[in-house]
Protein 1
Amino acid sequence: MTRLATVVLPVAGSGTRMRPATDATAKELLPIYDTPLLLFALEEAVASGAQRLVFVSRATKPGISNYVEHLMSQEPSFAGVEVRSVDQGEPLGLGHAVLSARPEVLPGPVGVLLPDDLILGAPVLAEMADVFDPASMDCLAAAQRVDRAESSRYGMFDLAMASVGSAVLPARTLVEKPDPADAPSDLAVVGRYVLSEKIWPVLEKTTEGAGGEIQLTDAIAGLDRLYAFQFSGCRYDCGDKEGWFSATQAVRSDRLRKETVAAE
Ligand code: G1P
C-alpha cells in the first residue's frame, strides 16, 4: 500500500449550479441529508492515510476553514492530521488549483479529491492508495462508465485495452470534455486521483485547454503510465441539484436502514 502523505482538496469553486443555496453557504458545506458534503471527503482522505490535508480555497469562502478548524479540534478521528490552506487567487482551472497546492505538499505521491464527487460505499481514495504502485504508475484516476452523450462533462479515458472485469485498467491518455463523437471511450474520470511527483513539472508547463482553463487532465495526459481505477461505490455529482438530491435520498435510506437494524 502507498500511504498518501498529502491529499489536496480543491474547494475554490463558486457553486454556480447550486445557486441560490450557494449564495448563502459554500456548496461543500451543504448537508447531504444530515452531513456536510465536506465531511464525507475528509473522512475518505484520512482513510487513505493522509497526514496533511491541503485546501485550495478562496478568501471569500471563510465558512470552510471555520468548519475544518472545528472538526480538527473536536473529532478524535482527525487527531494529528495537519491542515494547510492556500488561496487559488484566480479561478484558472483544476490544474491551476492543484499546482497552487504544491508549496504545501509533502514529498511522495499526492492524492487529489474533489469533494463535489461524493462516492458512497468503500472509501475510494483509500482503495486507490492500496493499489497505487509508484514503481509502475504515474497516475491512477477513479473511473466510471457514463453515457457517451455526457462525455463533454468529463475527462475521458483512452484505454490501452478494452479489458473487462479488472478494477485497474491501463490507459493511453485522457481527453478533457470531448464532444461525444470524439470521446475515445465511455469511461470517465471522476474526482479521485493518485499522482506521482512527476505531475509537478508537467503541471507547471500546462497551458489553457478546454473551457480556457488549465486542466489537470491535460497535465495527466503528459505523464506516461496512466491507469483507471473502476470503483465499486456509487458516485453522485453534488455540484448539481439533481445529483445532490439523489445523494441526499441515498444517505437518508442508509441512515434509516441502520437505525432499523440497530433497533432490532
Ligand atoms: C473535473 C475534471 C474532469 C472530471 C470531473 C469529475 O471537471 O476536469 O476531468 O471528469 O471533474 O467530476 P469539472 O467537474 O470540475 O468541470
Note: The first strand starts at residue 6 and ends at 10.
Protein 2
Amino acid sequence: MPMPPVKRVLLKLSGEVLMGDQSFGLDPKVVGELAREVKAAKDSGLQICLVIGGGNIFRGMAGAAAGMDRAQADYMGMLATVMNALAMQNALEQIGVHTRVQSAIQMDQVCEPVIRRRAERHLEKGRVVIFAAGVGSPYFTTDSGAALRAAEMKCDALLKGTSVDGIYDSDPKKNPKAKRFETVTYDRVLADNLKVMDASAVALCRDNAIPIVVFSIRENGNLARVLAGKGVQTIVQGEA
Ligand code: UDP
C-alpha cells in the first residue's frame, strides 16, 4: 500500500525515542539525529508539525500509580513534553531549521501559546511548528494532542515514529510469527485494541479521515523513505 500523497504532515514522536539507549531523560546525540530526519523531510518540500511525548521524563499514570493525584501528575507530564519540545527546537535550529514551539499550557517566557492561525503562518514561512503540552488537559496523552493538532492544522497524515516498523497482529517481541499489517482500518485497531495510539486519538483521526502511518524512526533515513513511499510501515485508514 503506497503512502497517500502528502503536503503537510504531523510527526508524533514518543518521548522514549529521545532517550536512545538511556533509561531516562534525553540523549542530545539522538535528538540531533532525529532533527536531521525532520530536516530531510522538510527539505523535500513538506510542511511539518511536530508533537513529542514526555514519557522519557514523566508519565501521569506512573505518578498516579505511586500515589500522586492523577491530574497533578498529568500536569507534570505535560511540562515534560515542553522540555522535550525545547530540546528538539534547539537541535533543529542548530542545523538551520527555523522552528516555533507552541504550548497548550501558556508559558510566555519560553514559547508561544497555541494559536492556529499563527501556526498556519509559520508553516507557510517554512518553519517547523512543535506543539507542546498535549491538549493542555489532564487525562489525555500526547497521542490525542497529535490527533487534535493534525485535525486542526488539516494535516494530510499523522506519522507515528516508534521503535517498531508498523502494527502487528500480536506482539512481535513475544511471537516470532506475528504478522505486520500493510494497512488496517481504524475500526479494527479500536475493536482489537491494537497498540498504536490511544483509542481517543484513533477515533479523532477516523472521524476526520486522517491516515495514521506507523513506522520505525530508529533507522537513519527512514522518515524520508516512508514519505517517498519506499519505506516499511502500516497505514491505518478507513475501509477502501
Ligand atoms: N499529558 C496530559 N495531557 C495531554 C498530554 C500529555 O496529561 O494532553 C501528560 C500525561 O501524564 C502523559 C504525559 O503528559 O503521561 C506524557 O505524555 P505521553 O505519555 O503521551 O508521552 P509519550 O508516551 O508519547 O512519550
Note: The chain is about 35% helix and 20% strand.
